[in-house]
Amino acid sequence: MAPVVARSSCGETLRHPSLAVPALATDLSGLPPMLSYVGADDILMNEVKYIVERVEAAGNDVTFRIFDGLFHAMEDNVPDAQPTIDVHNWVEREFGRMIDQHYGAT
User: Fold this and answer.
1) Cα–chain-centroid distance for residue 49?
2) pLDDT digits (tens, 9 = 90+) for 46-67
């Protein structure tokens, strides 16, 4: 799917598709800490899991979670649903933990 997105977003002549779709990059080493999540009902769950696995395999620090009951863009479209609230609480907590861990407690 990623090559199709790169071509449709940037045209057939794009010389470096990994600039448009980072999942296409051959070298994922040296990235900053990554915080990612996906819903168990998200149509992009497999793509998200794939990039997370690649980033981890390249030796980067990744915090990742799959949320039950969450579909694609649910947190934008159904902001008061419990899965959305759970996502926001988790992101806030984990982002703070990552900042403290990697850049010192504030």
Assistant:
1) 8
2) 999 999 999 999 999 999 999 9
H helix count then E strand count, the chain: 5, 2
Strand partners, 39: 67
Q: What span, in angstroms and rounded, lies between the C-alpha atoms of 23 and 6?
A: 10
Model pTM? 0.76
| Rounded (5°) CA angle 51-53-58 | 95
Nearest to 38 by CA among 65, 61, 62, 69: 65
Dist. CA 86–CA 15, nearest whole Å: 40
Q: Which candidate, 97, 98, 106, places its Cα nearest to that of 32?
A: 98
The amino acid at residue 10 is C
Cβ–Cβ contacts within 10 Å for residue 47, how many?
Answer: 16
